[in-house]
Design a protein that fits this description.
alpha+beta; Butyryl-CoA Dehydrogenase, subunit A, domain 3; five-stranded mixed beta sheet; about 55% helix
Length: about 450
Amino acid sequence: MANAFFSDLLSTISERGRVLLGRASPANDKQDASELLELCEALLSGRGEASGTAMAREVLDRYHHLDAAGRLSFFQTLARDFGPDHAKLAQAIESWRAKANGDDASDLHFASEPRRQELIRRLNRAPGGTGELVSIRSDLLSLMKGNKDLAALDRDVVHLLSSWFNRGFLVLRRIDWSSPANILEKIIRYEAVHEIRDWDDLRRRIDPIDRRCYAFFHPALADEPLIFVEVALTETIPGAIAPLLAEEREPVPVERARTAVFYSISNTQRGLGGISFGSFLIKQVVEELRRELPKLDNFVTLSPVPGFMQWVKQADDVPLTEEDRQLLESLGKPDWFDNAELATQLRAVLEPLAAYYFLKARTPKGRLIDSVARFHLGNGARLERINWLGDLSPKGLRESAGIMVNYLYRLDDIEKNHEAYANNGEVIASSAVKKLLKGEGRRLLDMRLG
């Protein structure tokens, strides 16, 4: 109710501001980027709240009527012409050089800020402005491919969105079958790991006694889940996804459940891609589960490995012999996993290779290759187990040759694991995973000597 009241109040202020400015709501015809940029300049130069709110709303409305070429031109101009005020910056630099002190440092900081950051702040004041800016960044991400000149603009957008969407603003809510239909529909639409086929499939995911679903919301996007987490309650740590999603499975009585399995975690807003919501989001879900079910002992994921096979096929540092590469061509055969002998041979190559992928392989910038691994290790998890043939879906076979992994969340170790990864890039892994890596080294050495 409070959010609705505030939104209505902003809309009223915006409409009255339009009257003060003598502007009508924009027509639905095609807009010109140059006219929109003039309006942005006017928004930056104005001071009144009512007129500013109305003008911000008009900028956002007119933006949506730009075609792809107009949006590219708009973004390029923001990147090129809406940087720092050069005269003010030069003056601040001279003052700092003449006599460096705290006030001059503050002046230098504010003078160096690009004007587009203030523009974005003022656009955020419009009714629905935060959600609109997230949508606009999604457009920006699409247009950045082949347009490196937009990188500075994206950095400024990310800088502000990171402040507005930090963990302190996020609210955790449980989603169940009684949740509003518009929220449930978005869970179906945004599921990114294991497709939800229809409403019956959704109900199997959230309604049984051994299932939970949680979502993080932001006050400015009250009906838009930003991240949602699907949880299965089990007796033991699972190694495959199919039994968890089976239509005819028997629910686990809650009193027998000892393990909570996070089997699907989806980020719903493309415009927030690359923006960290902060660490320990999963810890918050763990604490919520423990309050409800104190007998739970294990908190693990059953996670995909989406970048594994791409790395195997394309990276230069993959530790494979020529014989290994010939064997991996068998992955192109349909139902190769039904051939026990072939599957055993492939397992001997791929399991240790997966351990190497997590523990040794890195991007040119020194980061872990796998985005899912970065998320969980950054949240303080331990790489617990590599599961052979954990996902036999077409997507799972294509992306990871069916391999899945368990990340373990142990409450006493989450902060320590997070610090090790955040500060030193260290991947905390179980002895079982480390043994796989040692086995890979011995195998390759034996083959070379042979």
